[in-house]
Amino acid sequence: MDDFPFGFNSAVDLGRKWTQHELTTYNVTISPLPPAKFFLDPDPSFEHIDPAILGSLDYDNRIFPSIDVTRFLYSLHPAIKPTRQGFLVDFAAATLTFLGFEEDRGLVVSRLPFASGESHAVVRTDACLLNPYLNFALLVVIVDEILTGDTDAEPRVIAAAIAAFQFNNRNRKGLGLRPLDTMTIPCIKMTGTRPTFYLVPVTEALSRAITRGEHPAAQTRALRCRTAATTHAKRLSIGMEDIEYRKLALKRFLAFKALAKSHWERVFGGVEKV
Predict the structure, then answer these.
(1) Is the model's pLDDT at 90 over the cut of 90?
(2) Do residues 45 and 154 touch, judged by C-beta distance below 8 A?
(3) 159, 210 in Cβ contact below 8 A?
(4) Which of 94, 119, 124, 211 has its CA 20 to 30 A from that of 239?
(5) What does the pLDDT read at residue 203?
(6) How many angstroms separate the CA atoms of 195 and 214, rounded?
């Protein structure tokens, strides 16, 4: 068959083989939502964020007020016009760390592969938020490969979410916990320094169908929220080099952190709390 179901080919990163064709084959749709309907709070407080983060990227003779601000801005600068893909991955990971995604015993890990299906096939993430104590994936990040012209990484987002679900259930079994029937995996896609946010509900039925190369009857509906510039409509490629867009994007990251945490808490309650 022409599809690339997880578990059938261990020689390649299966997530990179996913296209819109696989989304149609496995009955996955992605519905756009505006921020007001996607986030719990689309306008979170920015007061605890150091205002220096919104300063110029002109580093000449500048002394930043903290190492956190320094790391964030120094990773942003090469990500604006990257000469290698790694700059974008490093910036995505630095953003999660700077905004406190590692709170509540989380750990940001770059370039983490998930084993999928019944063989040694993998789906690679560009960054992932893990609970290292339970070894569970809480959030995955995929970066558009803009240097190669591949700016349609959305199917890889879905593939990574499914692989994260499989990874979590495999580890739950190892801990003697009941596997999950369903879990919503929060995901972020970075196109340059422009984030798009997703909620991907993955079920055991979908995971099993993909592993077997079957075509699920039930539809999976993921949700998407883009971070579009509000004042530079003609500059579709604008990113966080623009201070106003940077503030908007960072607020969206904060809003997504609260939304993602609400989904983690539904799964990891009681003794399994993250």
Answers:
(1) yes
(2) no
(3) no
(4) 124
(5) 95
(6) 32
Average pLDDT of the chain is: 84
Q: Which residue has the tokens 């883009």?
A: 226
Angle, helices 67-80/85-98, rounded to nearest 10 degrees:
150
Banded pLDDT at 210 (limits 50, 70, 90): confident
The 3-class secondary structure across the chain, one letter per residue, is: CCCCCCCCCCCCEHHHHCCHHHHHHCCEEEEECCHHHHCCCCCCCCCCCCHHHHCCCCCCCCCCCCHHHHHHHHHHHHHHCCCCHHHHHHHHHHHHHHCCCCCCCCEEEECCEEECCCCCCEEECCEEEEECCCCEEEEEEEECECCCCECCCHHHHHHHHHHHHHHHHHHHHHCCCCCCCEEEEEEEEEECCEEEEEEEEEEHHHHHHHHHCCCCCCCEEEEEEECCCCCCCCCCCCCCCCHHHHHHHHHHHHHHHHHHHHHHHHHCCHHHCC
- Structure tokens of 225? 């929220």
Determine the average pLDDT of the residues in 217-225.
Answer: 96
Q: Please report which confidence band the pLDDT of residue 142 belongs to, taking 50, 70 and 90 as the band edges.
A: very high
Q: Are 178 and 172 in contact (CB under 8 A)?
A: yes
Going edge to edge, which strands form the sheet with 127-131?
A: 28-32, 220-226, 194-203, 182-191, 136-143, 127-131, 107-110
The Cα–Cα gap between 9 and 1 comes to: 12
> Is 0.90 surpassed by the pTM of this model?
no
